[in-house]
Write a structure and sequence with these properties.
89 residues, alpha+beta, three-stranded antiparallel sheet
């Protein structure tokens, strides 16, 4: 098993993900999971920035802007994806 760089924060994030999964279930659009996670992060007092725009570059050329789903405590980037089922990998 790989060593986690931010184990305590990582466990708090996973707990928030499980809470959303338990309460919301699956089958919804990504935006609803983002909203639910933001609420859960607030409850758990996890500092985050949502929909953070970053410039995407390739070989010193701009490809445009990309929006990160969450930047958590300026340490961890969290990208969520929805499917017919909401699950955690």
């Amino acid at each position: 098993m790989a060593k986690l760089i931010y184990p305590e924060l990582s466990y708090k994030i996973v707990a928030a993900l499980y809470e959303v999964q338990k309460n919301l279930g699956g089958g919804y659009q990504e935006k609803y999971y983002q909203k639910a996670l933001a609420k859960e992060f607030n409850i758990k007092k996890i500092k985050y920035t949502g929909q953070l725009p970053i410039e995407l570059r390739y070989k010193d050329e701009s490809l445009g802007r990309y929006f990160l789903d969450f930047l958590i405590e300026d340490k961890i980037v969290l990208e969520i994806k929805s499917d017919s089922k909401f699950y955690i990998r």
